[in-house]
Amino acid sequence: MNTTLVLASQSIHRKNLMENAGLEFKCQPADIDERTIELAIKDTGATPKELALILASAKALDVSQKIPDAYVIGSDQTLSLNDELFHKPEDMEAARRTLLKLSGQTHTLNSGVSIAKNGETIWQHVSIAELTMRELSPEFIGRHLSEAGESVLTSVGAYQLEKQGVQLFEKIEGDFFTIVGLPMLPLLAQLRELNVIEG
Fold it and tell me: What CATH topology corresponds to 5-193?
């Protein structure tokens, strides 16, 4: 098939998921300000789930307007604990504070994915995972962050489940792809439906 498929992201994790699935695609990071969008909708009552979809669609639409006729995939993930929305930690001290807050709690990951073509959203989906951290002592968190290193700063929850981060948890409900940040099974099903990939 000669259809152009574009991933509107510079996330190495999402890129790896798509490559591992055997997809042929280009990467073109979106040029949007996520925090500005988040602030603009802050008082609208949008849920973290809705915010993930809004951000995913904004990314796909931004790149779609620059690459006509391509199928552009945008994705974004939000992490919430009760009413608090978390962001990627700016430094290791912020990562430590995030893990202290999540310790012993069940938090929610919302992974939104959107497909746009010619500047229009043609499909979107959100998958949800519930993750329960075990009780973590400040000492353990310090050792964990020291061993895991600054790679934790690339994750909204300050952990990477596919690496040492798995040691932080006692229970996980949701699939691996949702946790990494790109719901692959519904995405692949839709790409087959659109005849972007062969079924």
Answer: Maf protein (3.90.950)
- Look-up: residue for tokens 């500047």? 119
Measured in residues, the chain has a length of: 199
Q: What is the pLDDT of residue 1?
A: 52
The region of weakest confidence among 26-35, 36-45, 155-164 is: 36-45
Domains of the chain, residue spans: 5-193
State the pLDDT at residue 40: 81
Does 76 qualify as catalytic in the annotation?
yes
Contacts 24+ apart (CB under 8 A), 25-34: 25/73, 28/63, 28/66, 28/67, 28/72, 29/63, 30/58, 30/59, 30/60, 30/62, 30/63, 30/74, 31/62, 32/58, 32/59, 32/62, 34/76
Selected catalytic residue, list 76, 83, 91, 175: 76
pTM of the model: 0.89
